[in-house]
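From the shared-data thread, chain only:
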Amino acid sequence: MALVNNPVMGINLRQNKNSKNAGYGKYYPEVDMQKTLTIRGFAQHLIDHGSKYKRGDIENMLSMVTECLPELVAQGIPVQLGELGIFRPTCEAKASVENIAAMEGLNPNEVVKAIHIRFIPNQSKLDNLAGPAFKDQCSLELRNIIDTEKVVIDGKNKTVTTLLPIATAVARLKSGTEGNGSSTSDPGDGPTNDDAGDGPVNP
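Structure, as tokens:
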């Protein structure tokens, strides 16, 4: 993977098609999600940045982090990874406890629906990775109008994503020849691209 000196985050616009919503018909931004990087890919990225360690050594260390971090969080121990931020557990309630008397002999599984691992980005003044402050560290670029629809092909549910470059959409509007984009991706059965974490592939 080549070293990126000036990284740019693409922004797509998706039209709100919920007629019951106040924003119906308007377009809202979302990240132009790229292919998810594996541990091997991330290790190679570190090497591209000048790491003196071998890729195999980096992969092993990262794999250990993915194993040990959940183990610690499962004990209620938040883990801070340097200036990146903190991974900590949170509790999702299933039911309430009426009073102190009801606590006697209570099984916590009766009131806890789920335990989630939450990431809290660093919010220090020098390394703020939260919300608006992190946006200021990103170079944003408008790219496409994105549309996703579910269709049935050969008896199977498919998800088709269409990408229309915004510059093309604007040009068509000015010339009076509005139309849909021609680039599509079909991730097949299962979650859509956004659900799976991988964005649509540009043609």
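Confidence is low (pLDDT under 50) at residues 182-203.
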